[in-house]
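Exercise 4. Each item below gives a protein and its sequence. For each, produce the structure-token representation.

Item: Glucose-6-phosphate isomerase (Alteromonas hispanica).
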Amino acid sequence: MSVLTSLPEWKELSKIAESVKSAHMRDWFASDGERAEKMSLSACGIYLDYSKNRVNEAALSSLFDLARACNIETIRTNMFEGEQINSTEGRAVLHTALRNFSDRPVMVDGKDVMPEVHATLEKMKGFTESIHSGEHKGYTGKPIKHIVAIGIGGSFLGPKIMTEALKPHTVDAVKVHFVANVDGCHIHDVLSGLNFEETLVVMSSKSFTTQETLQNTLTAKDWFLKSGGTQQDIAKHFVAVSSNVKAATDFGISEDNIFPMWDWVGGRYSLWSAIGLPISLALGFDNFKALLEGAFEMDTHFTTAPLEENMPVLLALLGVWYRNFFDAQSHVLLPYYHYLRGLPAYVQQLDMESNGKEVTQAGDSVDYPTGPIIWGSEGTNGQHSFHQLIHQGSGIIPADFMLPLNVPNQDDTHHAMLASNCFGQTQALMQGKSFDACYADLDGKGLDDAERKRLAAHKTMPGNKPSNTFLFDSLTPKTLGALVAMYEHKVFVQGVIWNLNSFDQWGVELGKVLGNQVLAGIQGEASKDDFDASTQQLIAKFRAANAPK
Ligand code: F6P
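Answer:
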């Protein structure tokens, strides 16, 4: 038995869960008129209604006991103070330093890193302004009008999704295009419409070893040279964001054009670093800074609010409750805001690459479920696609609904409909529709009783499906920063409770190695005996279909 499942707090939760499972949220709302108000929380401009969750006071109290038993407060302090909590790579985890607007130094290996964090922000600010003002010109003297941001994973999702979410705040000076996949369709689609005289490539790769990003940048460089640019002009049209300065300069990026990153910032936690340069270019540096300020406010809330009033802690515990005591396999994010449609994909990497693990810090296999599958899409679209399963499928899928109370260029009719769908869905998930109500609805339809009962069974909505609802006045850069930091800290708290190292990603390494071996196979540079029979035949099919004509 693991340390976690041996805890008395864990055993108490198991007992409480059994009693809660026989309760229906409908009845809790009926018996406590103050439930909704009591189970709401505000922080950093975000309002959370968590009353449509399958928890009562006993469950909540016991969940907070579990958090304390897992030393969440101590480990939280360790993270913010630069302890090497990334225990398999011997690194600190300090994405919070990137948005540290306090005067507090942050020490890494005995050195305060804040001066270099501030210097990098200044470099980003100056570069952004030089591009927007037209001071930075291309090799034929034209101002830069298009940015091609190349990266993948945390070097792509943050910049792209934050820029998309804040579209109402974009500047006119430049248009930012994002490329991630090594599928040539993407980079060629983007480049084919651009004039390289007025185009700048931002190549983002913390390791500077990621195949997709290197290949896409090589293709862009090749396109630049074929468009009339020379090797000497590269410096005007290519900049890099990386912690691997040597590899970047070896690649041909001039050192002045490299924005630094540090190994104490994980890729999926890096949008606050120079990885966010495309965000600054798209929105202006001040809006990028506001994003950081919002995250800093959430950091302050996370480190100072009592656990019972701590939004990331509460969300983490609710996730543990469903994952470990209700056998929930996934968690769905439903942003009822078109510009925030990318958030599920962002949180997918953040959560699943952090807690998609089955080995504890000590290297023992877990005897409990860990990170859930994270998925979702914008509302109301999901209602016409997968909400059927959330309402009537077997098991539960805890849901995060989120809605800005105001949107840019608001059409009141559209916005009222959006809100009514958002709230209506959470109500339907919670209260459902009983068999008796469905049976009554079928009265007078000319059905015999057996058919009436059969159809009523199909139409019954069990309800008791949990959801959180987040509201915010409008999605400003600051609010978005707080929202993303909230999810970062939720993931951190769950990783502590599950006793995982949330900050490495060994699971992606084998695929990268084998991918390169298969590439050699496809290019005829490896023995087919290097591969299993299935991979051999797949390679053979590909080679046959792409044999020189
Ligand atoms: O998926 C593995 C991973 O290392 C992610 O953690 C990271 O965000 C992405 O690949 C890109 O890595 P890099 O920024 O080093 O190119």
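Check: The chain is about 50% helix and 10% strand.
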